[in-house]
## 1
Amino acid sequence: MAEVLPAERDLRRVIGDGESVPDGEVDGLADHDLVELYRSLVLLRTYDERSVVYHRQGRIGTYAIYWNHEAMQAGSVYALSDDDWIFPSYRESAIGLLRGMPASTVLSWWRGHPAGWWNPADYNVASICVPIGTHVPHAAGLAWGKRLRGENACAIAYFGDGATSEGSFHEGANFAAVMRAPLVLFCNNNGWAISTPVEVQTRAETLADKAVGYGMPAVRVDGLDILAVYEATHEAVARARAGEGPTFVEAVSYRAAPHATADDPKAYIDLARVEEEKKRECVGRYEGYLRRAGILTDEMAESIRAEAEQAMRDGIAAAEAEPPADPGLLFEHAYVDPPASFETDLAELRRSWARTWAAPEVSSVRPRACGTRSGRSAASTPRSPRPGSSAPPSGSAWPASAPSARCSTTRSATRRSTS
């Protein structure tokens, strides 16, 4: 059970420091579970670090870094069942990997390619939400629907500290509380909404205090402690399944990486604090816990890292092997009955496209019924087991340095974000 630290405003922590602070344990987690949590951490860390390299090589667009946020994602997802729904923000863009989503799908999303679309029902993972907090009402609505249908599933919505200043968060949280929707509101409080510190956003001592106004319980956890995150989420999920309504989880950390690849945090962040936080980053901290417990060996750690590295190599190769996107998709899905001007507009776009890339030869704009879309169907993208039950293949290590930048086959739109 996690230790509650009154001096840190009731922050919960399980993992010690290997010296003066002893390690704790979490009920219900066997050695196998502890190793699978480590596998998830390494997979997420590898995806994030490789994605930064791919961005620098010009192979993906602007990328929202989540380095040192992996414990929040892996710990909370492990507390869910496969029937539960995940509503990610852009900071959790790769969370689908923990549900068996191919790395190529997420990489294609960052490349702005239609291969990055997926059917949410295939993985019970909603589309990545870039507008701040707008997915909270969606998650509340889905959770309420599950309750009305008498289903045992719940939902979890991820958002940053900046989202708690948005009206969408208030609407979703209040609705979930009033309707006793089985929802976990998971707040990644890394202290910064891009360059806005959390103390400028609110007069509340903690973001968990906001839950009082909605009549729901809240818990604060060390966001770098995967076991504390798992335990808090597991308890919140149990409350949800019991019909007791939503729970607010505030996972506390300090952002130790740029907000995104387009951000230069040196202008506003405490660089000395960043260096201190890097010394206790979540993957190494949990690895130390497993080694002190005699669970993780050098051979196991190397094998798990190699699996993740090869998964990323395969993912970027598959993403780059996708044919260029059909520019007609921009027009096909705008109207059921497209106006006549679309024909000339699309023709001009193709001419412009051809001057930059070789545009594919496709038919003219076609009317399309409402609710249909191009891309892979549920039948062509079956849901895979979570990484713990079917490990990806092993492979070689990362390249030592990035080659010179080159253009990708498609360009990604720059996305505006505030958390």
## 2
Amino acid sequence: MGILRWMGPEGDTCLAWSEADTNSMAAVCARIARAVREGRGVFEVDEEGRAVRVDAFSPSAREVVVIPQVKGG
């Protein structure tokens, strides 16, 4: 089981998935695809808290964090 943490103006929204539940995986996959299209940062976090930027959903991930697009000034 994994968790998607979507960070935005409304706060931190969590969405869990299980490899045994295709509906939950489809929902998370769609949210990650949307995040990539919008230019958001999508990071897979490992057990030790290290984050690696990704551009696709991995069902075996433990945690995925999506942050707003960072804009320069």
## 3
Amino acid sequence: MENISVSAQEQSETGLKKKYGFFTAVAMVVGCVVGSGIFFRSGRVINETGGDLFTGVMAWLIGGLIMFVCAFTFSMMSRKIAKANGFIDYSEEFVGKKYSYIVGWILSVLHGPCNASALAIVAANFTAVLFKVPNYDYSSWVMGLGAFYLIFIFCITNLAPKLAGKLQVSTTAIKLVPIVIVGTIGIIIGIARGASVADIPEFPGFKSSGFNGMIAAVVTVSFAYTGWDNVAALNSEIKNPKKTVPFALVTGGILIVVLYVLFFIGIHSAGNTQEIAMDRYVGLYKAVEILFSPAASSIFLVFVIISCLGTCNGYTMACNKHMYGIAVRGRGPKPSMMTEKSAHSDSTLNAALVVFIFTAFWFFMFQFQLGQTLWVVGKDDGGFAPDDLAVIAFYAMCIPLFFMFMVKFKETHWFVRFVLPILAILSAGFVIGSSFQSRPLMTVIYVAVIVLVSTVPFIWYNQKRGKLNMAEEYE
């Protein structure tokens, strides 16, 4: 396996400028993971664990361990490869060209767009709570505002990419403020009350508790831990990526787990966990109100909204590059068009437009699902949720990659070559298995959708590449 030397030149070998440094990469990891998940999934974790604090914290720790093992294995790959797109490059290097093509499509039209659309809707819901909109949950008001958020992020990311990078750094700093304050002050208040050092009794009528509740909660928190891979999607635009990407993944991963556990214990201290579980948006607002004041709770929501939009920005930045990663190899529909860069912004606008269309599709799938006008199958099994689909798709993609990592990484220490990827495979398998255990019918539907997205794009795999041999230029 040949290492690819990364020069200090301003322009990468793929023609994209080296725009981002270490702090932007760490901000990308933390910014893409710490977003809506910790804020609106905490209530669902409380629900599934029956309000048991220890079980809930264990779910967050297990989810964090899964993320850390997979991210660290990922970081070992990034030391070997630094081309146009991290995940796709690793898939091509270790598994093969056809598999990398599948991965590129899943990331471009399913994983990234599902998460971006979910984040826009969550930001809109929190905005509705801030302005006390009645019957807000997934209403036409919320969906309209969510659509505006998506369009706004699309314009910033593609028309002003340097501004988008600065937005990623600034929103990461902003989103850490409420998590640290609520977590720290909440724990102090909780210890004074005895709420955070003793298990809270189970709530009558809640879904489950104990081991089964923890298994269901691990699947739930897995959404809150996705997004760390997005920093590798910007490999070709990160300065010195072979050193920057691994350190960013490890540093960001440790910080994320600490923040999540801190915040989860903090909100437990408010004492209204049952209310948080029943209404994850209003309940969280009232929890902060109990800990601080009504004014502080409103400020908190502003920070949360910015946090969600910052994470949406991170996903949009990354999945645009996933589509570019397909086209730069001369694959997919009209690769020459998909790799055209704007002279003004140095962005691949055509690829971004395709991604935006799929983001809009999944955005409206949320409306159909939650409005109960579509996807009535499996309603009793949790219903069809595109954000859960994205989690299953991501970890399913990782398993072949981790397996082939063991086969081809021959020159590496035995611990890195065997122990690390085996742990990563077991971690990814645990998330998928937990989903089957807690939501069997919907998981089968998710797998069917993933298979569909993996096969249909082969219509374009062998089409003529036109005048420009993109694959040769890429190599």
